[in-house]
Task: inverse folding
């Protein structure tokens, strides 16, 4: 007679929910896993170097030069690998025997290089001779690459910020990054594997390598440089360095930080020897009026202004007008004026000259009071070299009126930046003011273009984010919208003062859902059309299911939080520092298609970015820690390591209570529906009644395949790709685990843990068989099968 | 950033599924057909020997130092100044340049009192009948005049005819039209037609 059991099926599996009582299909912990559109959870990817390694013996010193121009492979006299010790430190598995082999190999290579051969022949010989060496002492070595690789990023300082952008509708893509030694670089794949970067240069040709020019680095929690793309250029601000704009060729200063200095203007006089003013008067052109009537002379007075232009056509404000210059014209000739032009800062390509009209009318009456501040365009000097300009323009030949209030300096200390409706918006983390440029003039900030957002008690502006028809301004305690357009003006209104963003770089927009951000109270999402369209615009908290994880965040280092959207896996990634760390060391993943959370530990990064082309690669800026190497890394769905640490997928179900809280049950069997990957095992264990230790000291295991049908399935490492085998298919298969909790006593709640070590695993659901229900009353055998029953009644007879 | 990465690494003892291979192959296949860029090829990576002939452009020309006489009474456009006909094999843009110089045999100038009226010359360049360049009413005030014109037009694969034609005469008083001036031919020298067919 079989034992009567009840089957409980849990499917589909959902994400983390660490609340005391969660739905049965939720998980207490999900690590290193990702949700798939086939409604399952599989192991997540990991990350490794963005470029592969290289043989140091095959690379010349010049190539290894930190910032030298990239050259092709040109083998030279090799030295013994100087970095054996470094690699041994990194790879503790590198045995002494292997080290000897490597050294011996290098000597062989060295001897062959004495011969006169072509570069390519020499290179190939070296590769061949290295590969022929026995690699005894390291049995798991499949190729020389395993023990003899150097990585370019070992020679470069740690990357601390990342930005990806493209030009020409994605035709040219850029990955820019700053390094901890104050440099600014671009990823340059053609230089791989030796020098996969190029240093960016300032307009004066100085490299921004941390020596000639440098970028700010801070050990304190800091959101770092903020980037914004406008018209195919990328603007960089961090509040400390000069604002930069990179156009794909060079960096220049964004906007102007100083007014054009006041120009001086003098009347052309022959007796002024320092200037060539041979032409002092003219009959057909010149300034002012001719004298007429009985007067033989007439006076005229002018003032000048000069502005600078950079190569993007952005104009600086003028630095005030020159002192007035007065001339005296006759009845037949008019005077000329020479203006001494100020030189603009580097990046200036032209200067514009403005002038008042004659401040005396034709009758010689002054009109300075009324028109002394009206400057009209005279000319544009298209260089930043000429020192003098001879003005011959009569008033009637002047150009349009120059409105000084349309121009302004690039705001100092700006470290928040966003482009919205062809307008550049700037803010800094010390004020509640948002400044915006003129339309299509991203580097000209009129002095009146300021919006006061919120007030000082709602904290500093932490981020600007353009989305839909609004620019969202996040403060540490408040969310505001800036609406409007350049034509009719911009205006702010308050969305909420209850919650704000504390991590500027936690902001990312989930496609079709809303803008996610980290607040002091957890993770929130800003949803709605941000318009009066009937769709409610509001802020919703989405972090409740992982509240215990969020409590571990070091909110004092919230400025170091980073985020990105993993478009491939449909995840919002939030990298946070936990457990007192300063830099992000835990990845919180919000699987936005199902609205579920999971985590990944030891995900130590300084910055992260997802390329917005068809590749959607995620690049990570990593530093040297116990779990990561420094350098640019890339996330790959099939990578089995995250830096130095293995990907170890784990799914722990929520505490499953069968029946009511006071009833108990006994588990007799558990079946997992998992994708059959082959002979690698799936491990299962469980805890009962929220105990701290697993029920089994050693987890139960099962191969991830059907025992009979998949018995002859091809297996990596054994199968040969000939007619002996045919391909198999990874599809869900039931895996049976016979378990018991008898040694644990009465079971009120049970939570299963599934893992697969460092191998693949994909869970679809699980099913448990339990004995439950009220205990049957004791039944005497004689009552059941016949015979006398003592019921006390005989005593009364 | 055409720097692609293997997305799947199979482990020993895993079952062999062709999707393991296809996943990685798709990653590479996505970069074909125009996606490779400077992250794959350095500057100066390729010399002209590595590039197949006519990969980017193909140049045709009609170059002659022989003279050509345009009769003085040619008051409507006459072909034959320069001519090039070819079969375009790809879609692209055609950039046509023509240069040469002309001699007016009887220019009206202070040194030549024989000429009483000013002669003008108009040259035009056509691609399959579409005018792409024109030098309009060059005045015969000098004996020798250098000329240059350039034009561009998109073309599809097929027959392409590039021809340069010219007309000459003297202006009516109201400058509205040209009339024949029988006493002054125009001589063309060093006619050079260069047609660059650039692949789209």
Result:
């Amino acid at each position: 007679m079989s034992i009567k059991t009840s089957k409980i099926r849990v499917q589909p599996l959902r994400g983390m929910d660490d609340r005391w009582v969660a739905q049965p299909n939720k998980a207490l912990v999900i690590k290193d896993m990702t949700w798939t559109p086939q409604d399952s959870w599989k192991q997540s990817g990991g990350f490794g170097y963005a470029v592969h390694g290289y043989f140091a013996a095959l690379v010349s010193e010049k190539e290894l030069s930190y910032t030298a121009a990239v050259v092709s492979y040109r083998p030279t006299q090799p030295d013994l690998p100087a970095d054996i010790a470094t690699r041994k430190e990194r790879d503790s598995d590198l045995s002494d025997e292997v080290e000897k082999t490597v050294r011996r190999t290098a000597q062989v290579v060295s001897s062959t290089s004495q011969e006169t051969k072509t570069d390519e022949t020499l290179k190939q010989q070296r590769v061949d001779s290295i590969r022929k060496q026995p690699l005894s002492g390291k049995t798991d070595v499949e190729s020389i690459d395993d023990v003899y690789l150097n990585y370019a990023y070992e020679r470069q300082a740690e990357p601390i910020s990342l930005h990806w952008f493209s030009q020409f509708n994605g035709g040219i893509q850029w990955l820019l990054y700053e390094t901890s030694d104050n440099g600014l670089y671009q990823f340059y794949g053609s230089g791989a594997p030796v020098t996969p970067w190029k240093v960016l240069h300032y307009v004066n040709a100085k490299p921004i390598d941390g020596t000639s020019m440098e970028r700010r680095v801070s050990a304190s929690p800091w959101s770092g440089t903020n980037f914004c793309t406008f018209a195919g250029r990328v603007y960089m601000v961090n509040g400390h360095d000069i604002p930069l704009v990179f156009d794909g060729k060079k960096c220049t200063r964004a906007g102007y930080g100083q007014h054009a200095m006041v120009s001086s203007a003098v009347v052309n006089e022959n007796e002024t020897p320092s200037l060539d003013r041979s032409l002092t008067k003219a009959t057909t052109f010149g300034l002012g009026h001719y004298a007429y009537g009985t007067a033989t002379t007439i006076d005229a007075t002018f003032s000048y202004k000069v502005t600078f232009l950079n190569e993007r056509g952005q104009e600086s404000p003028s630095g005030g007008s020159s002192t007035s210059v007065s001339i005296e014209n006759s009845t037949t000739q008019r005077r000329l004026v020479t203006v001494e032009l100020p030189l603009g800062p580097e990046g200036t390509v032209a200067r514009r000259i403005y002038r008042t009209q004659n401040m005396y009318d034709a009758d010689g009456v002054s009109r300075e009071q009324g028109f002394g501040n009206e400057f009209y365009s005279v000319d544009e000097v298209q260089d930043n070299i000429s020192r003098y300009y001879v003005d011959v323009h009569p008033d009637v030949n002047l150009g349009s009126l120059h409105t000084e209030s349309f121009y302004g300096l690039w705001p100092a200390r700006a470290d928040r930046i966003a482009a919205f409706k062809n307008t550049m918006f700037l803010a800094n983390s010390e004020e509640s003011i948002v400044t915006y440029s003129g339309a299509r003039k991203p580097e000209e900030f009129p002095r009146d273009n300021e919006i006061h957002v919120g007030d000082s008690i709602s904290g500093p502006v932490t981020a600007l984010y353009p989305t839909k028809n609004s620019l969202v301004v996040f403060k540490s305690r408040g969310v505001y919208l800036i609406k409007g357009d350049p034509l009719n003006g911009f205006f702010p209104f308050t969305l909420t003062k209850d919650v704000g963003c504390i991590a500027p770089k936690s902001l990312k927009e989930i496609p079709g859902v809303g803008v996610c951000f980290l607040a002091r109270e957890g993770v929130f999402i800003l949803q709605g059309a941000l318009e009066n369209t009937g769709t409610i615009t509001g802020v919703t908290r989405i972090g409740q299911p992982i509240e215990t994880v969020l409590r571990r965040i070091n909110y004092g280092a919230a400025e170091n939080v980073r985020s990105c959207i993993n478009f491939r896996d449909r995840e919002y990634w939030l990298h946070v520092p936990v457990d007192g760390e300063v830099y992000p060391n835990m990845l919180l993943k919000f699987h936005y298609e199902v609205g579920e959370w999971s985590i990944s530990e030891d995900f130590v990064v300084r910055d992260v970015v997802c390329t917005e082309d068809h590749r959607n690669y995620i690049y990570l800026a990593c530093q040297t820690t116990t779990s990561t190497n420094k350098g640019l890394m890339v996330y790959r769905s099939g990578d089995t390591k995250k830096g130095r640490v293995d990907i170890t997928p784990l799914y722990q179900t929520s505490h499953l209570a069968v029946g009511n809280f006071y009833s108990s049950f006994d588990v007799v069997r558990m079946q997992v529906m998992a994708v059959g990957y082959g002979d690698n095992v799936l491990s299962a264990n469980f805890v009962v009644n929220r105990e701290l230790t697993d029920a089994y000291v050693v987890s139960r295991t099962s191969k991830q395949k059907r025992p009979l049908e998949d018995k002859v399935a091809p297996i990596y490492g054994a199968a040969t790709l000939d007619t002996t085998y045919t391909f198999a298919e990874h599809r869900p298969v039931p895996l049976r685990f016979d378990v018991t909790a008898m040694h644990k006593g009465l079971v009120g709640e049970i939570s299963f843990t599934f893992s697969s070590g460092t191998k693949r695993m994909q869970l679809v659901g699980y099913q448990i068989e339990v004995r439950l229900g009220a205990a049957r009353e004791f039944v005497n055998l004689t009552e059941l099968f016949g015979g006398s029953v003592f019921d006390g009644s005989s005593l009364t007879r | 950033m055409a720097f692609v990465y293997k997305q799947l690494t199979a482990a020993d003892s895993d079952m062999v599924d062709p999707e393991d291979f296809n996943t990685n192959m798709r990653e590479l296949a996505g970069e074909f057909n125009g996606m490779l860029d400077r992250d794959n090829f350095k500057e100066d990576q390729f010399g002209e020997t590595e590039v197949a002939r006519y990969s980017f452009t193909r140049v045709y020309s009609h170059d002659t130092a022989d003279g050509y006489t345009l009769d003085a009474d040619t008051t409507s456009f006459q072909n034959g100044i320069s001519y090039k006909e070819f079969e375009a094999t790809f879609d692209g843009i055609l950039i046509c340049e023509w240069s040469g110089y002309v001699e007016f045999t009887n220019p009206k100038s202070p040194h030549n009192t024989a000429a009483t009226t000013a002669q003008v010359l108009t040259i035009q360049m056509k691609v399959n009948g579409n005018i792409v360049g024109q030098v309009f009413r060059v005045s015969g005030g000098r004996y020798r005049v250098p000329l240059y014109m350039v034009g561009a037009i998109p073309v599809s694969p097929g027959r392409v005819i590039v021809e340069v034609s010219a007309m000459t005469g003297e202006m009516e008083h109201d400058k509205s039209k040209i009339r024949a001036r029988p006493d002054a031919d125009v001589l063309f020298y060093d006619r050079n037609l260069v047609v660059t067919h650039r692949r789209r």
